Amino acid sequence: MTNLTDLTIAEARDGLRKKAFSARELTEAHVKAVEAARDLNAFITETPEKALAMAKVSDERLARGEGGLLEGVPIGIKDLFCTEGVLTTAASHILDGFVPPYESTVTANLWKAGAVMLGKLNMDEFAMGSSNTTSYYGPAKNPWRRPGDNRPLVPGGSSGGSAAAVAARIAMGATATDTGGSIRQPASFCGVVGIKPTYGRCSRWGIVAFASSLDQAGPITRTVRDAAIMLRVMAGHDPKDSTSVPRPVPDYEAALTGDIRGLKFGIPKEYRVDGMSSEIEKLWQQGVEWLRAAGAEPVEISLPHTKYALPTYYIIAPAEASSNLARYDGVRFGLRVPGNSLDEMYENTRGQGFGAEVRRRILIGTYVLSAGYYDAYYLKAQRVRTLIARDFTEAFRKCDVILTPTAPSAAFPIGEKADDPIAMYLNDVFTVTVNLAGLPGISVPAGLSADGLPLGLQLIGRAFDEETLFRVAGVLESAANFTAKPPAVGTGA
Amino acid sequence: MLIEGKTGNWEIVVGLEVHAQVISNAKLFSGAATAFGAPPNTQVSFVDAAFPGMLPVINRFCVEQAVKTGLGLNATINQVSVFDRKNYFYADLPAGYQISQYTRPIVSNGRITIDLPDGKTKEIGITRLHLEQDAGKSLHDQHPSKTYVDLNRSGIALMEIVSEPDIRSPEEAGAYLKKLRSILRYLGTCDGNMEEGSLRCDANVSVRRPGEPYGTRCEIKNVNSIRYVMQAIEYEARRQVEVIESGGTVEQETRLFDASRGITRSMRSKEHAHDYRYFPDPDLLPLVLDSKWIEEIRAQMPELPDAKKERFVRDYKLSPYDAGVLVAERESADFFEEVAKGRKDPKLAANWVIVELFGALNRLGLDITKSPVSAKQLAGLLDLIENNTISGRIAKDVFALMIETGKDAATIVEERGLKQVTDTGAIEAAIDKVMADNAAKVAEYRGGKQQLFGWFVGQVMKATGGKANPSMVNELLRKKLAG
Q1: Helix (H, G, I), strand (E, B), or coil: what is residue B112?
Q2: CB of A364 within 8 A of CB of A128?
Q3: Is residue A196 a contact partner of residue A170, using CB atoms and an 8 Å limit?
Q4: For the domain that residue A460 is a member of, what is the CATH number?
Q5: How does pLDDT run across A330-351, given as a tens digit for each residue?
Q6: B49 CA to chain A: closest CA distance, Å?
Q7: Of A17, B14, B22, B417, which one's alpha carbon is 20 to 30 angstroms from that of B113?
Q8: A204 touching B, CB under 8 A?
Q9: Which one of 3.40.30.10, 1.10.760.10, 1.20.120.140, 1.10.10.410 gives the CATH number of domain B424-481?
């Protein structure tokens, strides 16, 4: 029998239907792999008993010839999704002991489709970070290493645990969330596929909020097809989320025709940022050639407000976060550090409960919303956001999809950039525009850097046109033929 | 009203902010119940308690109630309005922010007409009405060192109704609140109960020399009866005059009314000055109203107090004062109309409702919905007066018995034999006897002492146990005394 943890979701689905193996076997293999790979620190909470119990139900369903789209498929859940009866931390000290009495809509959709839960995945605290180093539970590690260099690398963030687990073959797929690149950048760093769908495509209900107007859930998987399968299950209208959109969910897998002849893809000239490494530049060019060879036509486009995207993002996201995180006050759930007055209890609880990066963003957010600064910062950022969205509307008159690098670099060692938040924020330079405009974006592993680390290319689509995105991503994936595996896989480290 | 200061006259300028709890079974952004007086923390959803990942979803009915109220205030309904977050930390504010409407309220530019004691009316502008969530309740008296929090109220829909600074006296403020409450009750959008806190009022008070620009205002928070609002304004205006006249300046601040001492006092120190950091709530889309829907609501609007008053004056020929008293509460107006329906003399009905019924209810401490005499029963009593079965005087006794026993007027009249005597022979016999027993008085009368006539009437009524028809007594007595 082939190594069960090496299968894609599509392969596992077919194998389960053909009874080549059982959901129990598939799950046991993953539970074992999770245990063996604890050094990666990809999971905050493992739920092996739950996984086996769910697998048992899946086997019963499969035996009856029933079963949903993900029946018996073991996956991991980013610890930002509330899971009923299972500790949910957002990787923060302040949510100590918080066991939600409810299930997020996205995870509920997954369980309904038969998916099996392996546990809750590590991440940057409250999804704030690009390296998974802000987690209260310690950094998750990238299963990749630079050849001849044993320093552990960051898996990217904030969905670092999700990308690391999928790349390390300890989960077939994982849920993730993306506020400024938190699905796509870690996918790029770990050599896996990650899609942030259109804002409003997946319900935010039951997902711990970071920045409500930017947050969106999506899957991280090893193939484009797997991402299509998983997103179909995760997506859908939810009356409990006023920003979720009542549109039917297409069969994304059916969009993977491999045929992109005549399609136009845009190359934004503003994305050739200063200091972009030549290998990223080269990979991007390679991507252009691949798509051209498949019959698509490159067109140069302009997204003139790109240079304002990062500052805009780092005003809007902290502003919303400063308000969203006000509820962590020690009064009703999670950590409480007592004090002699209400104010003192707030100060003690929030001072000790939040890590440095979260505190920094709360301070920035509070500042930009303050009387006297609101117009200069928040209001102006909202206006620029409108202009950035308009850039894309204009660009999509000329093309059907946009091709860019996902991140300006490959994964870096844990600890690097730790004392330079601005350098850390620059990781998001190619991804934040997509969140600001509410568009879908996917990262596909496209090659290796000179020092042997994965690099991703990003495709950006029109709102609610995930199908085109998947179709082009599928072509890119075939052309890139990314078969490299992280060295740590199977070694237990 | 002008305040006479040591240095001349001062004008009071008042604007009122009213928080009216929307009548709705569910909260503004959650499905939790809203009933008053439930045990603590039994009407709380995870949204109301601001658990992680919970999201607000607007309650359509609360929006309808706000639109209805806006229409009742002759205001503009804004087809696009926006919910904002008002951020501040407090133990009974679970999310750390209140969802409210800041720059774009659902209703703006309304007005209401208030009725003044001298019979005149005055228009007061309504700046805006917006929807917002209520906070929970902190209970400081349950434990020596801890504060308990009850979140039943958290998330309940409120309408904040803000007036223009058009109010010029405590009396006008009282009239404004009474009128506003009456309109809200007519519309069924707020029960107006100040004791239970479903209507709360903050008053912005300043003083100025007549004709000069507005002075610095102080906001008096959460005054929980109309009488207290009037007292607080009066006290605060006089305090400000004193401050200014003794050379000081009025500080813009929030003050609290101390009802036991009848004074206002400063509430917040400067270091707690709030910066609410309002911004549009990203969990909610702008609220967009369909004009057709607004028109549907408009078509279902009930007749409001002003229109009803006008109709009562026109159709029932009531005085504006009486009509105003009757329409103040929808239930009183309905009661009156049922009594007055098809009656030759609707003014008689108005008098009976206002003087006798309201008087009795007042004494019993009941409101009209609990009246022991129904409208139909009162109509029955008036029928007996109008068809001369009983006199107005006897009717008062009958009414007292009706209040006491709840029986119909006809039954009481029958049981007690109170039917009016309209038999000419019987009345003549009584007159003859009175005249025979008081020959001296008859002589005096005939000698020119005409004012004795009333005395004779009284004697005859007494002799007939009050049941003789008064006009017949008058007529026959006059004839007989004339000889």
Answers
A1: strand
A2: no
A3: no
A4: 3.90.1300.10
A5: 999 999 999 999 999 999 999 9
A6: 8
A7: B22
A8: yes
A9: 1.10.10.410
**C-beta neighbour count of A379 within 10 angstroms:** 15
Pair B210, B354: CB distance under 8 Å: no
Among candidates B103, B24, B12, which has minimal Cα distance to B64?
Answer: B24
Sort strands A74-78 and A116-121 into parallel, antiparallel or unpaired. parallel
Identify the domain containing residue A316 by its residue range.
1-493
From first to last of the 483 residues of chain B, give the pLDDT tens digit.
889 989 999 999 999 999 999 999 999 999 999 998 899 999 999 999 999 999 999 999 999 999 999 999 999 999 999 999 999 999 999 999 999 999 999 999 999 999 888 878 999 999 999 999 999 999 999 999 889 999 999 999 999 999 999 999 999 999 999 999 999 999 999 999 998 899 999 999 999 999 999 999 999 998 989 999 999 999 999 999 999 999 999 999 999 999 999 999 998 655 556 799 999 999 999 999 999 999 999 999 999 999 999 999 999 999 998 999 999 999 999 999 999 988 989 999 999 999 999 999 999 999 999 999 999 999 999 999 988 888 888 899 999 999 999 999 999 988 887 787 777 888 888 899 999 999 898 988 988 888 889 899 999 888 888 888 888 888 888 888 887
Q: Please give the Cα distance from A399 to A297 (Å, whole number).
A: 9
Q: Is B464 helix (H, G, I), strand (E, B) or coil?
A: coil
Average pLDDT over residues A318-335: 98
Cβ proximity of B156 and B140 under 8 Å = no
For chain B, the structural domain boundaries read 2-297, 303-416, 424-481
Q: Which of A92, A162, A182, A443 is catalytic?
A: A182
Give residue A418's pLDDT.
76
A78 is catalytic: yes
Question: Two tokens at A219?
Answer: 């899957």
Nearest to B279 among A98, A319, A329 (CB): A319
Q: Do A327 and B55 touch (CB under 8 A)?
A: no
CA angle A293, A298, A301 (to 5 degrees): 165
Q: Which two tokens stand for residue B440?
A: 């001296």
A182 annotated active-site: yes
Q: CA triplet A99, A104, A106: central angle to 5 degrees?
A: 145
- How many C-beta atoms surround the C-beta of residue A348 within 10 A? 17
Q: What does each C-alpha distance from B178 to A150, B24, B174, B182, B449 come to in angstroms?
A: 79, 22, 6, 6, 53
Strands (E), B94-244: 97-100, 107-115, 121-133, 137-139, 148-150, 157-163, 199-208, 218-223
Q: CA B433 from chain center: how many Å? A: 54
The side-by-side arrangement of strands in the sheet containing B84-87 is B97-100, B84-87, B279-280
Count how many domains chain A has: 1
Using CA atoms, how far apart are residues B160 and B85, in angstroms rounded to an integer?
A: 15
* CA distances from residue A23 to A12, A51, A115, B388 in whole angstroms, order as listed: 9, 10, 10, 95
- How far the first Cα of chain A sits from its last, in Å, is 24
For A59, the 3-state DSSP assignment is helix
Mark whether A158 is an active-site residue: yes
Residue bearing tokens 């994305």:
A271
